[in-house]
Amino acid sequence: xxxxxxxxxxxxxxxxxxxxxxxxxxxxxxxxxxxxxxxxxxxxxxxxxxxxxxxxxxxxxxxxxxxxxxxxxxxxxxxxxxxxxxxxxxxxxxxxxxxxxxxxxxxxxxxxxxxxxxxxxxxxxxxxxxxxxxxxxxxxxxxxxxxxxxxxxxxxxxxxxxxxxxxxxxxxxxxxxxxxxxxxxxxxxxxxxxxxxxxxxxxxxxxxxxxxxxxxxxxxxxxxxxxxxxxxxxxxxxxxxxxxxxxxxxxxxxxxxxxxxxxxxxxxxxxxxxxxxxxxxxxxxxxxxxxxxxxxxxxxxxxxxxxxxxxxxxxxxxxxxxxxxxxxxxxxxxxxxxxxxxxxxxxxxxxxxxxxxxxxxxxxxxxxxxxxxxxxxxxxxxxxxxxxxxxxxxxxxxxxxxxxxxxxxxxxxxxxxxxxxxxxxxxxxxxxxxx
Length: 435
Ligand SMILES: Cc1cc2nc3c(=O)[nH]c(=O)nc-3n(C[C@H](O)[C@H](O)[C@H](O)COP(=O)(O)OP(=O)(O)OC[C@H]3O[C@@H](n4cnc5c(N)ncnc54)[C@H](O)[C@@H]3O)c2cc1C
Fold this sequence. Notes:
eight-stranded mixed β-sheet; 32% helix; 25% strand; binds flavin-adenine dinucleotide
């Protein structure tokens, strides 16, 4: 990185988190006469919408996670610090960071953008995380990939039919877009790759169950798209169980209970339970509540003013999944637009211009992919699925990836899948043999 010589009189802008929101804020400040320090606990910018493709051996981790230093190499006024922000002191205007070497550091700021996003939530059952990995970080996706691939290998090595059945049963808890995408992609992996390569069992022996406590699969989408998703998942052999909540998860399976009838509990023996049921805002939300008196909404997000700042702190902005901005959903597009807006507000102030006072969201809709040739797209009143939905999905996702090298790598892997059914990223790297 070519860090510009910091000038003592320049404003110091600190951005916590270089995900969708934080990165846009940094970029919006590229021409401003400020010094920007980006602090993140990981060294990369993660494109979370394609995590499930890493988790199922289609894409390599690096394809969706360029390093922050490479992304910001050409931005002369930006620097990167690898560390975990543990506390924000809005009175002294400093953040506490535990840096990668384990040391505590205080970093001062003039303006602060907090874009630390969300973390997996097990609704009070954190121990489930040990056996049912979530899909939020790159590490999570690699853990899931290794777990799934190891399950097939273990099933092949096992002679006891019940044990083999448990290894070939995959339960995805949470049937929102992430759960649907993951279940659909595991099914595609089974039908197009595993079935061809394993002699010990067939695709018919594999059971994939998608569970949700709500009444629908793909809840946030229109009914017509939900129905279309159900049909596709049905065709892929994914069993859907709605109105059922996970009551207990162990290394050997999951106990499910109907939402309104605890007596009908049911245990599914499964060695692979994957968690896509919930996220909660970063703990920095609670920290900000304590230190600034900010209000948290029912989900624990920081309620911000119209310009994304916290009341009484014009210099402290909260954006993305961590913030409640006009009740917008926790999606990449709101986070990106908020980041861009906040960066511009800071740049305008520095250059003596009057910044806009109110963030306005431009709704670009939402999408989810269900199967290799099927995705659903919803933009305002317009809703479509099928191959057209998949084409729109592919264009948008490649377009939003950061870096031409990453776009090319993803396109090559997708082309290999389409032409040869190949999933090349299936080396198991972190799973030890099962005893
Ligand atoms: C599997 C999955 C699929 C998704 N698919 C879609 C989709 O298809 N379309 C869509 O619009 N949205 C999708 N989303 C949601 C979208 O990714 C989020 O809404 C978006 O990432 C929010 O942006 P953000 O900047 O608030 O947080 P993030 O992008 O999550 O970035 C937060 C950053 O902060 C860092 N960080 C966190 N805490 C700290 C700390 N204490 N100190 C230092 N650094 C910290 C993290 O490492 C991370 O880099 C998906 C999410 C997931 C998990």
